[in-house]
Structure formats: structure tokens, C-alpha cells
Amino acid sequence: MSLDIRDFGMTGLKVTALGFGAGMTGTDSLTDKEAKYLLNSVLDNGINLIDTARSYGLSEERIGKHLSKRRSEFVLSTKVGYDVEGYEDWTYDCIIAGVDKALKILKTDYIDIVHLHSCNLDKLQEGAVTEALIRTVQEGKVRVPAYSGDNDALNYAVYSGRFGGMQASINITDQKAINDILYPAKKNYMGVIAKRPSANSVWKYNEAPVGDYIEQYFYRLKQMDTDFGMPVHEAALRFAAYTYGVDSVIVGTTNIEHLKQNIAIVGKGKLPDDLYQQIRNKFNEHGSDWYSLV
Asked: What's the rounded Cα separation, in Å, for the pair 158 and 146?
């Protein structure tokens, strides 16, 4: 089953409705051989967006090692802003050095999308990190300057007009970005990636995962008390993937069968209109003060 191919805003990039979140490919629990097979399987099964970050362990390294020869087949997204030896986090020089380091590790001459990774509002307002990211675009190292984050910082990034793309938490229990910023983002011709579209599968827990950051998702889902009429995972993916303004949803897995199942789910298309609207109404009824998980 083929996936929709969508324009990533007005950036000139085209992305599949389902992208691959490569965070789990960076874990030590996955061998290098397994990571190679997984990453190539992503492309072999028709997904063309791969999203990673500086903080995802061996992820960037493995993408560079195993996919550099297939670079023309996919849109590459990563995130910067921190953890570059010799540089203070969230400074102009750290952004420049972070992009250069990512290029080297990923074994590529350019990166399609580079996000400032959950950069705090005060740093965005200072402007230095944004100016540095734009410089990397001017130098041909990056195609699209982007912001990954939520809430007030995301709103500022979108309204600043300095970014061509954004990544935000969007799922059945996390709809603040839908209410607040998706329409302005599309008016600014931005590409939009939805992270956590399956709400970290929080419905699999019989009891609240106390202490885990997704504990809020567990309580929210209980309060919304929605009859989806289908597996919750399916409803969640189709909800996020076909929300207006979302160009791609990124899902991570180390299981090839799960990967194929996700492709099949998104390939089914949008939810029935009444169910989609029910999910929106339930969130707005209960979640007027629910902030997005960063």
C-alpha cells in the first residue's frame, strides 16, 4: 500500500504522510546489523522522511553509515543546538558547529531540514541561534531552517517568519498545536511534522505510568473516554496524519512488521468525519488547559 506524497509547505520538499522517527535506531539494544536492516527497510517500504537528532545516541552515525549511498532517496531531518564539544549550548557558534558535525556524521553534503531542538523561548527571542541556522541555509548546508518544540516557544517561532518548517506534538491527547498554531503555520507556508502521533501508545498501560513524562497522556485519554470503534493505535495515527496542516507524522519502531502495519494504517486514509470531530470535541471539552508535552 502506497503512502500519500505531500508538499512540505512551500519548501520544495515532498514527504510521505508517514515518516520514520529514528531515535530508537540509536540505542545500544539494537545491533549495528539490525539497524542497517531496519533503516534500509524503511526506504524499501516507501517511507521517504527520516527524522533524527543530535541527542539520539548512535542514530545519526548509523544513518550516515548505512544510508549515505541512498541519500537521494529520502528527506533527512535532524536537530541541533547542544552537546557540541568546545561550544556553549544554544549559542550562534554552537549551531554552526552542530550543523557541520551533523553533516560529517551523517556523511552528506546537505541536510534537508534542521530543527532547533526544543530551544527555549528566551534564546529564540535573542535571535542568535536563528541567525546561525539561516546562515547554514545561505551556505547550502541546510535546505530548510525549522523549529521543533511546543507551546509558547513554538508559537513565537511560527509567527517570527524565520522558519520554513516546524515539528510539534500532535495526537489525540495533545491537540494544543492544532488549536493554536497549525493554521498560522500554513499561512506562513511552513512544512509541518507531527511528533508523538500515537501518544507513545499510552493506552497499553493498565495503570498510570507514574513518573514517566507520558503520565499526562494516560490521564487525558481516560478523561476523554472516547469510543473509537477501531484499535486506538489506528485511530491515533489516522487522526494525526490527516489533520489539516500536517504534512507527515513520524513514528519510531525497531520492528519491521510494526513498520509495515503503520504504513497500512496511514494508507487507509482519514478517519470518518464524525469520529474525527468527536475526538476534537472531546479534547476541547476536557483539555482547555492541557499544554503540549515538550
From this structure: 9
Query: Does residue 294 belong to any structural domain of this protein?
Result: no
Total domains in the fold of the chain: 1
Mean pLDDT across the stretch 173-190? 97
Cell numbers describing residue 265: 494504517
Distance CA 235, CA 228 (A): 7
The DSSP bridge partners found for residue 115 are 79, 146
Residue 29 lies in a domain: yes
Angle at 97 between CA 29 and CA 58, to 5 degrees: 5
As a whole number, mean pLDDT of residues 283-287 equals 96
pLDDT digits (tens, 9 = 90+) for 209-265: 999 989 999 999 999 999 999 999 999 999 999 999 999 999 999 999 999 999 999
Q: Which of 217, 221, 164 is nearest to 13 (CA)?
A: 164
Would you say the pTM of this structure is higher than 0.90?
Answer: yes
Contacts of 170 (CB under 8 A, 6+ apart): 177, 178, 194, 195, 196, 197, 240, 243, 246, 249
Q: Which helix (H) or strand (E) holds 147?
A: strand 142-148
| 182 within 8 A of 246, measured Cβ to Cβ | yes
Residue 276's CATH number: 3.20.20.100
Domain for residue 291, yes or no?
no
